[in-house]
Amino acid sequence: MDILNYFQQMVDLASEGELQGIWFWASCYMLVVCLYSAYFQIRTRFWATTVGNIHNLGLKKFGISNDLSEQQYRGKALYSYSVNGQTYEGTRISPWVFVTNYNAKGLLLRQQAGIDMPTKDTVTVYYNPNKPQKSFLLKASKFGILVTLTSAVAPFLGYVSRFYA
């Protein structure tokens, strides 16, 4: 069976609500999204650095919930930095957007503890040398890239195991 026929078969199965077709296309989606994310994360590991000024660093409520255990949080930051005489402001902490609930918000604080702060008012900023307005306070870790790559292939491994083993 050629690949185009297989894709058509998976389209038909997915449109009928069959698990195999849905799983196949969900796996394709995860593969594309996670491979792009891994590529981006790897690129950010080679970004230039500069020292900037930190104006705000903490947690921000994300969404609205009356139940404290369901309240979502994400990290927030505001910092400024200069590249070639041009000043920029940044708000992104990491290439990974991390949202958690009240019970696990300590993970966000732990993430922020990894930010390099040469003094209490300054911070190391990682910026794209081709687009200096794009920046982070943390560069992608090797472990994070590995998790992303694993997330890219794990659904396909599960798919093959479930339908072809």
From TrEMBL:
Domain called DUF3592: residue spans: 75-138
UniProt KW keywords: Membrane, Transmembrane, Transmembrane helix
A Pfam family: DUF3592
Keyword Transmembrane: yes
TM stretches of this protein: 22-40, 143-164
Top-rank lineage group of the source organism: Bacteria
Protein name in UniProt: DUF3592 domain-containing protein
Organism: Alteromonas gracilis
